[in-house]
Amino acid sequence: MFQVKVDESNALVEVTLEGAIRPDEMRQFVEQAVSAIQALASQGRIVRALADWRHLRTASPEAAELLRQGQQAAMQAGMKRIAELVGSELTALQLNRIARNSGMERILRRFDSEEEARRWLLQESNELNVA
């Protein structure tokens, strides 16, 4: 299961992946998430994402590759920061590898608390707007 929500007021894309994600689901997820990022970025906004992977199982190689491609597309579309919430160490290892291969590791930070993640995202937005 996946979900993509957009918080227009904060230029924040909130994404959730849960369970075992099939490649066709991952493809749909990536398309929706990248489309949301492009829509916000086209308004000249600094786009950030909150990724909730707490209930995600490790992905198949095919789904993991689609996620890697999606991460690259999201950065090209204008995403500047991403905060991740991860529940499993095994999933975290896989996500680390995917982020390293996509280049997303330089804009990513992982959190245990959703409150801390949101605070960091909003703080980063304010700092980027001032700079």
Order of helices and strands: EEHEHEHEH
Report the average pLDDT across residues. 93
What is the 3D form? globular
SS elements, strand count: 5
- The total of helices stands at 4
> How much helix, percentage-wise, in residues?
40-55%
Uncertain runs with pLDDT below 50, 5 residues or more? none
Distance between the termini: 38 Å
Residue fraction in strands: 25-35%
Radius of gyration: 14 Å
Kindly name the structural category: alpha/beta
What oligomeric state best describes the polypeptide chains here?
A: single chain
Lateral arrangement of strands in the main beta sheet: 1-2-3-4-5
Q: What does the largest sheet look like?
A: 5 strands, mixed
Describe this structure as you would to a colleague.
The protein is of the alpha/beta class and 131 residues long. The chain is 51% helix and 27% strand. The protein has helices at 23-41, 61-77, 89-102, 114-130, and strands at residues 2-7, 12-19, 47-56, 79-86, 108-111. The protein has a five-stranded mixed beta sheet with strand order 1-2-3-4-5, sandwiched between helices. The N and C termini lie far apart (38 Å). The mean pLDDT is 93.
